[in-house]
């Protein structure tokens, strides 16, 4: 079965409510390919490796969290950017990308999906009155020692996380996928026992240590694999088309 590209994009935009969210890049259709879509390949980032895999998989569209055209970047289509766009345009493949809308979504969002993967009970956003509040708060099924929880994270994500061990068991935790280490101060103010994200900065470690909170950096790529898969499955089931998630490993 196939679906019109325009219908697919319209539904993805509607489902994620992408138009209401200000972002650092355009959300939705970034590169237009053939008008009919039978097979979607999803992945975290529209890297050359993912595009090559999508070509091999005979995809009509590629769906990612990290696409192109970020604010402040060089707009010239040269080098790596030229090669990526040439691959898409040369094979008539569309590129759909959703950044913050995919982080925030209450069903297929990266943060909700990561919480489910880790078996966390989701309490809600860290800032309930803020529609752009991206950090979630919740709890493990039972209190866990920081080292035990870090091992659990590593087993689920298949990647050993960086652990800054706090001085108390983890009963309540805040988390945000990707490069959200800057939210640790808000997590500390909220009184949680631990904060988990993808990346770490030098000052993050000091904030965690000096406030007695556990901090876990589980990898930007590793924490953001699940939202795009969930969105791909939703679209495939909605329209009766094929979907394949392709993971291009990234240690960062």
Automatic annotation (TrEMBL):
Keywords, alphabetical: Metal-binding
Single Gene Ontology MF annotation: metal ion binding
Record carries keyword Kinase: no
UniProt keyword annotation of Metal-binding present: yes
InterPro entries: DUF34/NIF3, DUF34/NIF3_sf
One GO CC term, this protein: cytoplasm
Pfam families linked to this entry: DUF34_NIF3
Residue sites binding a divalent metal cation per the record: 65-66, 103, 220, 224
Family: Belongs to the GTP cyclohydrolase I type 2/NIF3 family.
NCBIfam families in alphabetical order: YbgI_SA1388
Name the record gives this protein: GTP cyclohydrolase 1 type 2 homolog
């Amino acid at each position: 079965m196939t679906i019109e590209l325009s219908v697919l994009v319209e539904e993805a935009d509607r489902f994620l409510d992408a138009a209401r969210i200000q972002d650092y890049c355009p959300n939705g259709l970034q590169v237009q390919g053939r008008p009919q879509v039978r097979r979607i390949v999803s992945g975290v980032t529209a890297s050359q490796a993912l595009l090559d895999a999508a070509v091999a998989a005979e995809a009509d569209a590629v769906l990612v969290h990290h696409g192109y055209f970020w604010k402040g970047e060089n707009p010239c289509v040269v080098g790596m950017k030229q090669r990526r766009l040439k691959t898409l345009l040369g094979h008539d493949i569309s590129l759909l990308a959703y950044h913050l809308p995919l982080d925030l979504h209450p069903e297929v969002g990266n943060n909700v999906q990561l919480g489910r993967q880790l078996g966390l009970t989701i309490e809600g956003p860290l800032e309930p009155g803020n529609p752009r509040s991206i950090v979630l708060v919740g709890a493990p099924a039972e209190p866990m020692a920081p080292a035990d929880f870090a091992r659990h994270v590593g087993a689920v994500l298949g990647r050993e996380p960086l652990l800054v061990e706090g001085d108390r068991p983890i009963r309540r935790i805040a988390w945000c996928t990707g490069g959200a280490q800057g939210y640790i101060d808000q997590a500390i103010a909220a009184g949680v026992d631990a904060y988990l994200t993808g990346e770490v900065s030098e000052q993050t470690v000091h904030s965690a240590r000096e406030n007695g909170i556990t901090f876990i950096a589980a990898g930007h790529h590793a924490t953001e694999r699940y939202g795009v898969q969930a969105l791909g499955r939703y679209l495939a089931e909605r329209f009766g088309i094929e979907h394949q998630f392709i993971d291009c490993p990234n240690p960062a």
